[in-house]
Amino acid sequence: MPQSRYLIALGSNQRHVRHGSPRKVIPAALAALEQRGLAVIRFSATLHSRPVGPSNRTYANAAAIIETDLGPADLLQLLKSIESDFGDRRGQPWSKRVLDLDIILWSEGSYAGDNPPLTIPHAMMRERPFVLRPAAEIAPKWRDPVSGLTVTQMAAILASRKA
């Protein structure tokens, strides 16, 4: 398979025993992506965001553009393996986690698969400023294949709703 680019969202809201605070988990995760054979082309600054759902912990969030010859399902399995290397998720969805890696966009367009379950573009990206703000920093003109809007346009629309 030829090289594809993916926009990956990174998040952390729990200390790691070796890397430290969530803010320090993000660069460690970027290094782990490269150690596992993914080329990190660009990455955003890390920002802090309020939690979604029942969690009370503040998140450190960032975005990265990676390049790989892996297809979406294989990439998802690799990302889940990296998450596991950083520590198990405990409890309910949106609870504390050392590392969360989500595929947001794919250079080849849309994808839907059942094994493992995966939809690209990420179903919730248009509603998440903690995804769109860092993504707009590194991929401002990348278009959502569903809406046709750029990442910058989606971020602006979301910001105007929150104002």
How is this structure best described in words?
The protein is 31% helix and 26% strand. By secondary structure, the chain is α+β, with helices and mostly antiparallel strands. It has a single domain, classed as Alpha-Beta Plaits (2-Layer Sandwich). The strands form two sheets. Strands 1, 2, 3, 4 and 5 form a five-stranded antiparallel β-sheet that branches. The protein has a two-stranded antiparallel ribbon with strand order 6-7. Helix 3 (129-138) runs antiparallel to helix 4 (151-162). The radius of gyration is 15 Å and the shape is globular. 34% of the residues are buried. The mean pLDDT is 90.
Main sheet: strands, sense, barrel: 5 strands, antiparallel
| CATH H-tier superfamily | 7,8-Dihydro-6-hydroxymethylpterin-pyrophosphokinase HPPK
CATH architecture: 2-Layer Sandwich
The amount of beta strand, in percent, is 25-35%
According to DSSP, the number of beta strands is 7
**What's the CATH first level?**
Alpha Beta
Topology:
Elements: E1 4-12, H1 22-35, E2 39-43, E3 47-49, E4 59-68, H2 72-86, E5 100-106, E6 111-114, E7 117-120, H3 129-138, H4 151-162
Antiparallel strand pairs: 1-4, 1-5, 2-4, 3-4, 6-7
Question: Which properties best describe this structure?
Answer:
5-stranded antiparallel β-sheet, alpha+beta, 4 helices, Alpha-Beta Plaits, single chain, 163 residues
How would you briefly describe this protein structure?
With 163 residues, the protein is α+β, with helices and mostly antiparallel strands. It has helices at residues 22-35, 72-86, 129-138, 151-162; strands at 4-12, 39-43, 47-49, 59-68, 100-106, 111-114, 117-120.
